[in-house]
Automatic annotation (TrEMBL), chains A, B, C, D:
Named cofactor requirement(s): Zn(2+)
Domain Enoyl reductase (ER): from-to ranges: 13-351
Keyword Metal-binding set for record: yes
Pfam families named among the record's database cross-references: ADH_N (PF08240), ADH_zinc_N (PF00107)
One GO MF term: oxidoreductase activity, acting on the CH-OH group of donors, NAD or NADP as acceptor
SUPFAM superfamilies named among the record's database cross-references: GroES-like, NAD(P)-binding Rossmann-fold domains
Recorded superkingdom: Bacteria
Keywords per UniProt: Metal-binding, Oxidoreductase, Zinc
PANTHER family reported for this sequence: NADP-DEPENDENT ISOPROPANOL DEHYDROGENASE (PTHR42813:SF4), ZINC-TYPE ALCOHOL DEHYDROGENASE-LIKE (PTHR42813)
Protein name: Threonine dehydrogenase-like Zn-dependent dehydrogenase
Family: Belongs to the zinc-containing alcohol dehydrogenase family.
């Protein structure tokens, strides 16, 4: 039995590098040799014990790599091919997938779906902060990487870019909309870029860190608001002449940002929520117009699947967006514990960390 | 100056019949002689002081009548014509209207919209529980009543039917959907009918009153659940084999029903909210899948305008729905105080009360 | 090698019953023992040589049956289970499927899709007018049949009902719409039912056969027009007071019906086209408003997949539609040549023929 | 009676400058003093007698100007205010407007809509190639011009930009789409820009004039194809690896470009048609996949109204698009006959001509 190195969850506070067997390949699977991966905010939730996973699980859901071995029923690929897989790995054959809720394809049992079931890598099955990762339903999930693109150029596709863009897409932004994006972490920055790419006339980016606001401006924000210096709700209402925004995107997962989104929304506007919340939410009656504001609140889990990945990579290849600047630090897999330390404490202006086995 | 009888708000607890001048007709207005109107749950909120309006305001927003006088700039109608107007009276010329948020057309000032502004009759201008009512922007709002339909047959169009149906429409119900409707008051009953009319395979109606559940079954509900006898969330999950519903419609305006809607929703499902809430709302983390359930929460204010009214009346005329059974009691305008007394205490199985001046 | 009986295409004019080997089961496949199937208008096109298929191909794409054997990679089913599969059998893993064009999932090669590729049974692979049929991508395509439903009750789901309903669905019919359906063959009848089920206030059914118009009225048509007796365009404009229809559904596949659809459409209306055309089409300038009518022309190929089948069966199970009356004749597989003779000549008021091996 | 100069249609081949009375102002109207206007391709159709209008009609539908006088029922504006009005002037109160077909609001009679009725200026009422123009339904149609924008900067909003952008909007372009735009006249160029603004990863512009292709590249086209040098269908299939495009936009109004759009469409793709056709159209069976390609053909007439104008001007103000380069020539109103001569012969690389009274 051959072994590989993998970052596994041991207990709250401890993700450590261990030796694990390289997994066997089932008929629909593919084994990917990971060449680059990264750490996500959700992984930090796992590290801190805020989001529970099984002890011994390999963490990570953003794989870039090379096909090492294909399952016996997998066609259309060749070993050695450069590929990525989305953070969310739909089966393609579940009822959830077939009725348009691909990201919610989890259980597949007769008794319905589990809300988190759609997210498998590093949640319900071993993830990709390892030398190898087993990709389920490979024909649905493996997306070939164009030769012209480097690993780091596509590293944001599996999760950050797919999630951030979906915040703009699901809100159905129209040409000329005014959009506010609350929080400019990696997902918020991609939401900012996605809003701009969708035709927003004005994108207003909110955060509390000057460095992130600077990056937001580079990604296309027309206005940036430092929430540590002023009340962003008042500032947005001032900027829009009291009209409010057509779309507000929540990209942090807190009561404060969720509520601020509601408060800046024009009647008939849309709150597009991307954040992973860790507490109950509270909707103030006034911010909700007592239920009479023709509002929409839409939550979205990162869309996955190879076609989604193909599209996102085509946007990068076209030069319409450059997410390279989001990789601020680089670590070897052997040093992933140090990477977690840096990332979880948000030190040194870190946005995303590239990890290479 | 000629006088008319009108039900006006005096102070919390008191809506009384008074003499008021028949209003002057501006160039875009029409004066309607009211032949039938009704009392809405919102009027009861006003009566109780829970929703504030100006003292002396005439209440009521569901007018059926005859054109008495047309404004100088109004064309396309004739005096004596039988018409209705929606509860919500869009101007047709506001930016809100022109960007698809007709029900939110209120202020029309440079400083944006007011959430409640779209509702004018009996809220910001005099309403129709009176002998006459002035209809603003008449060319947008007056809908001729087909000869074949009686006053009572179209009495639900201005508010109850338009609101209830919009709960189904805005949820984008698809053929084969499973839909739960929480609360079977007049609006909930119309939501039940609207869900059925939209192609739902299974409609589950929830209420605490046996009489209303019986009416719900007549309006098309496949299953009825008496929430006074069991936990409707558990019962709905049982009925759907644990799958949950595609769409849940809230038609009461309480925390309990709002939360129950979230708890029965399948991942990717839609909560369509029609209720007028009177308290802040609370979203339990689990019921919201921590923001990862691909849910949509959509609130809708009653759509108005003459084209909407034309469509609703065409549905009635086609025989696809019969709302006649919803008029359970009849009063003269002179006895409207007694009608309020009955309706606000929900006595005698009352659903809707027809008021005739 | 075990043999089975199968209806195969030999040459234009000849579909004959032959012995063929029972197919081997690949890892993603399932072998279905066919218990009931039927003949489609498209099969008649094949018979007549109007639509080319390979010689020796087994015809038929509407299977009801029992799982005989499951592929090695197939999970979630058991042998002996009653199932249907859609006429169109998407893979679930193609880029077409994953971008929402499941019915167009055909080739799966790097060089794109073939327009007809999505239809496989009896077109590019052996079909189901046989004792056994091999279902590709079984986990995507096998839909368990509820115990309460008989074979004949679900026999229309794979093609006729799925196609007909999709005509209404893709047109995005709204409550209160006026809809005209041109041609009341099996698909047109299902489009009529689907339009009604979608909330149309008025459905106008057009055909040249009195018997079919009678069935159309039973399926929910409010008006029927015998096109052999009058000009249906004039009649529809008369019925709608010159306004035209919101949606016109084409369910025959001829220039005449296509053009009539355009001519009855209101500005801003939608032509939903289901027919399989066999000639070029001609768009008269006036009927098309010179391109300025805000029209939509939408073509749809029968949606497939197990979730689609589940939904359609749930509609039947709910009692909202009864397609049993569409099976007008019954034949043994051994007599299928006689069935083709009857069906292709549209004798004896035939709508659909049930074939049982 | 005061007179003004106006360009009027006299007979095929002759549009001449004449003296006409300055129009009276009805209660819902506004009189605009025109400061800048332009000539459209449709005006050339009128000049040539290809599109019939009444003799003596003032031509022109793209007004930029100043409010000279407001109708008695018009509120919310002040005389002297800088405004534009869209080429299409919806009433706001017609049933067409109220059911979402604003551009089709024409007749307003009981007997339905006339396809061209939505276009009034220079078609059914006097247009704006004059010193003054009467704007109907002023509150719906007058959009204040931001101080920061010059006349020429907003001159494309009333027609060219609104139409071109709508080609992208109505096609529901998604982030990552591949879009082909056939013909790069002023509307095609705006469609190219609109496609890019909507998130297309790849925009392919087709024309036969090198100068226009150069402008297309400046407006955001990723590839340009000179149709005088190669077969654009073959070239587009080559560029997309045989896959075809997600959206093809027709911006010329000819059989050749319409058919080419169909031929480059992927299964499930959308043809968005903007051109004004002058002949019947022909749909080849193969290009239409015999009706089985899940295609959509959508035609769009220029959206109008003040909210549309506000949005378009906000896009210009945000700096996301610069249409200044499209004004290639400038004339005084007194010289408009010379301007027609230049424009109708497409001399000197003309794109658009600014006309100032």
């Amino acid at each position: 039995m051959t072994l590989m190195r993998a970052a596994v969850f041991v207990e709250p506070g401890r993700i450590v590098l261990e030796d694990k067997p390289i997994p066997d390949v089932g008929p629909l699977d593919a084994l990917m040799r990971v060449t680059t991966t990264t750490i996500c905010g959700t992984d930090v939730h796992i590290l801190k014990g805020e989001y529970p996973v099984a002890r011994g699980l390999t963490i990570g859901h953003e794989p870039v790599g090379v096909i090492e071995k294909l399952g016996s029923a997998v066609t259309g690929y060749r070993e050695g091919q450069r590929v990525i897989a989305g953070a969310i790995t739909p089966s393609g054959w579940s009822n959830a997938c077939l009725c348009g809720a691909c990201s919610q394809d989890g259980a597949g049992t007769a008794h319905g779906w589990k809300p988190m079931g759609g997210w498998k890598f590093g949640n319900t099955i071993d993830g990709c902060q390892a030398e190898y990762v087993l990709v389920p339903d490979a024909m649905v999930n493996l997306a070939p990487v164009p030769d012209a693109l480097s690993d780091e150029q596509v590293l944001m596709c599996p999760d950050i870019m797919s999630t951030g863009f979906s915040g703009a897409e699901r809100a159905e932004i129209r040409i000329g909309d005014v959009v506010a994006v609350f929080a400019q972490g990696p997902i918020g920055l991609c939401a900012t870029a996605g809003a701009k790419l969708s035709g927003a006339a004005v994108v207003i980016a909110v955060d509390r860190l000057a460095g992130r606001l600077q990056t937001a401006a580079q990604m296309g924000a027309d206005h940036v608001i430092d929430a540590s210096q002023c009340d962003p709700v008042e500032e947005i209402l001032r900027l829009t002449g009291g009209r409010g925004v057509d779309v507000a995107i929540e990209a942090l997962g807190t009561q404060q940002t969720f509520e601020a989104c509601l408060r800046v929304l024009r009647p008939g506007g849309t709150l597009s929520s991307l954040g992973v919340y860790s507490t109950d939410l509270h909707i103030p009656l006034g911010a909700f117009a007592a239920g009479l504001g023709d509002h929409r609140i839409i939550t979205t889990l990162c869309p996955g699947g190879k076609e989604r990945m193909r599209r996102l990579m085509s946007v990068i290849e076209s030069g319409r967006i450059d997410l390279g600047a989001m990789v601020t630090h680089r670590y070897k897999l052997d040093d992933i514990e140090a990477a977690y330390d840096l990332f979880s404490h948000q030190r040194d202006g870190v946005l995303k960390v590239a990890i290479t086995p």
